[in-house]
TrEMBL record:
Secretion signal span: 1-23
Annotated protein name in UniProt: Methyl-accepting chemotaxis protein
Swiss-Prot/TrEMBL GO biological process terms: chemotaxis; signal transduction
Annotated family: Belongs to the methyl-accepting chemotaxis (MCP) protein family.
Any one GO molecular function term: transmembrane signaling receptor activity
Statement: the UniProt record of this protein carries the keyword Transmembrane: yes
Length: 597
């Protein structure tokens, strides 16, 4: 289906208005999208690093807590605090636990592991088999044990420190504090909440944190059901990031809920003066939430393009309608003018055609007269040409006969030379036969000598065997020489017979050449008479041709004048016809323009 000019103009105007806007919009979207994506990644990495740093500092404070507790006078100076009762000592520990608010149990053991002091609610009596007790006894340093489930079902972290006697400097016991991991959950949730308030970023509250212990398992997470799961089973990218021990971010699939997430990894920093934790933090969020702003960018781009399309479309319709109306008026005016011009041109064309017809009739009559004159001249010319050709043929024939005579004389000389060569060849052939007979005689004699030598060799016995073999070979060669001589004799006889035949043929050829020379001499005399007669005819034909040519030239001048008149009339007719065709084409263009508009 063909579109009208108006529709094409509207489409072009809309494209001209919207395509640049779309190109700019797409370019801006790509740039803004990349910036948004980079900012989102940097923001999440910053938060992950902040969480890891918060955990590190929190555990450093807890190490300070256990160090302070181990240095309480009621623990490290038993001699100076004898007057303090057991209940008062317990009240002191309960007060510390209440003030810190992160512990659920504190216990003091002697060097045998027996519990000698504990906070309210603690029921243990001997902790000698616990890993933290053994670690402190072995190293005499603060120990922080990796998170694990306690007897009450909660995931806890145990911190232990040696109790050093303030007077003697010797270790006299071990103090242990048990910290539920939910204390870390509280500070991490608070940190994430504060970050979401500061950035006011949509979706920040959906971030999921995971604390990972040295055994690469989750010991704290926003979703409680993830605690205890293996980190590398949930996030495939964890293996590489954990091996590098530095901040990293990747797009990964959470194998628990099969969602695509932006995963940021940050190792928990170790502080001097405390045990190495080897913990790390993973902060994850669904990519749909992280990059939600990109969808808003697309929406804005489509909305802007739509508005531009509507505005451009309205302007295009207005512009195209006005332009089409103007073109329609011009097309109507062109069509009317071309019709009037066409009628005038047709009248002039008929008049010119009649004039050209009259000139053509006159030209035809004169051309017939010219044709008759040219025909007479051509006939006279043809007669002269025939006479000239006959004269040339006679001359050529005479030359050919003379040349033939010369060639025949040469042939006769060569035939004589061939005869002499044949005679020499015959003599040489006879000599070859004599030599061949001599070779045959020598072969017979050699054969006889070889036979005698063989007989002598046989008489000589063993000493003559070698000579006998040689004699046998010589005899064979003599037989072969004899046979070859016989073949040569046979060939010599054949050659001699051929030579005799050639001699006879040469004699006959010499006789034929002599006879041909006599005939050629008679032919030369006949050609001379013919040439004289033809030359007379040629002179008469030239005179007739000259007169006919003069008459034809006069007639041709009249024809040329008439042709010039005829050509002028034809040129005029052609010009008028061209004007008529151009007018018709102009009319067709105007009609097409009207149809398009």
């Amino acid at each position: 289906m063909k579109l009208s000019l108006t529709a094409k103009a509207i489409a072009f105007s809309i494209a001209l208005g919207t395509l640049p806007a779309m190109a700019i919009g797409v370019s801006n979207y790509i740039s803004a999208s990349n910036n948004y994506r980079q900012n989102a990644i940097q923001s999440q990495e910053s938060l992950a690093f902040s969480l890891a740093d918060k955990v590190g500092r929190f555990m450093f404070e807890r190490a300070g807590d256990i160090r302070v507790i181990s240095r309480l006078p009621i623990l490290n100076n038993p001699e100076g605090t004898k007057e303090i009762t057991q209940q008062q000592r317990q009240n002191v520990l309960d007060g510390f636990m209440r003030i810190y608010g992160v512990y659920d149990s504190i216990a003091v053991m002697d060097l045998s592991g027996k519990v000698i002091l504990r906070t309210t609610g603690e029921t243990s009596t001997n902790l000698a088999d616990r890993d933290y007790f053994k670690e402190v006894i072995r190293t005499k340093q603060i120990a922080i044990i990796q998170p694990r489930k306690s007897s009450n079902g909660e995931v806890t972290v145990h911190l232990a420190a040696p109790i050093i006697n303030a007077n003697t400097g010797k270790m006299i016991g071990v103090v242990r504090a048990r910290m539920p991991v939910k204390s870390l959950d509280s500070i991490l949730n608070e940190k994430i909440f504060n970050a979401s308030q500061q950035t006011q970023q949509v979706g920040s509250s959906s971030k999921e944190y995971h604390l990972i212990s040295s055994d690469e398992k989750f010991f704290a997470a926003r979703e409680a059901e993830q605690v205890g799961r293996d980190a590398k089973e949930d996030f495939a990218s964890f293996v590489k990031m954990h091996a590098e021990k530095k901040m990293a971010t990747a797009i990964d699939i959470d194998r628990l809920d099969k969602s695509e997430q932006l995963v940021s990894y940050a190792p928990v920093p170790n502080t001097e003066g405390m045990p190495e934790l080897n913990w790390s933090v993973i902060l994850a969020e669904d990519t749909k939430s992280v990059f939600a702003g990109q969808q808003q960018l697309i929406t804005n781009l489509l909305l802007g393009t739509g508005i531009t399309l509507l505005v451009a479309g309205g302007l295009a319709v207005l512009f195209a309608s006005r332009t089409a109306k103007m073109i329609q008026q011009i097309a109507n005016a062109v069509a009317s003018s071309s019709t009037e011009i066409g009628a005038t041109v047709e009248q002039q064309e008929r008049t010119t055609t009649e004039q050209a017809s009259s000139v053509n009739q006159t030209t035809v009559t004169v051309e017939e007269l010219g044709a008759a004159s040219r025909q007479s001249a051509e006939q006279a010319e043809a007669s002269a040409a025939g006479a000239r050709q006959a004269l040339e043929l006679a001359d050529n024939g005479s030359k050919a006969v003379h040349q033939t005579m010369a060639e025949m004389s040469t042939v006769r000389d060569k035939v004589g030379a061939i005869a002499e060569q044949i005679m020499r060849l015959s003599e040489q052939t006879t000599q070859i036969g004599s030599i061949s007979d001599l070779v045959a005689d020598v072969a017979n004699q050699t054969n006889m000598l070889a036979l005698n030598a063989a007989v002598e060799a046989a008489r000589a016995g063993e000493h003559g065997k070698g000579f006998g073999v040689v004699a046998g070979e010589i005899r064979k060669l003599a037989d072969q020489s004899k046979k070859s001589a016989e073949k040569i004799n046979a060939l010599v006889n054949d050659i001699q017979a051929s030579i005799n035949s050639t001699v006879m043929a040469t004699d006959e050829g010499t006789k034929s050449v002599d006879y041909g020379l006599r005939l050629a001499q008679g032919t030369v005399e006949s050609f001379t008479g013919v040439a004289d007669a033809v030359n007379h005819v040629f002179l008469n034909s030239q005179q007739i041709s000259l007169s006919a040519k003069q008459q034809a030239v006069s007639v041709q001048q009249v024809v040329s004048a008439m042709n010039e008149i005829n050509l002028g009339a034809k040129d005029t007719a052609a010009g008028i016809n061209q004007v008529r065709v151009s007018t018709q084409q102009l009319n067709q263009v105007a009609q097409q323009l009207q149809a398009i508009v």
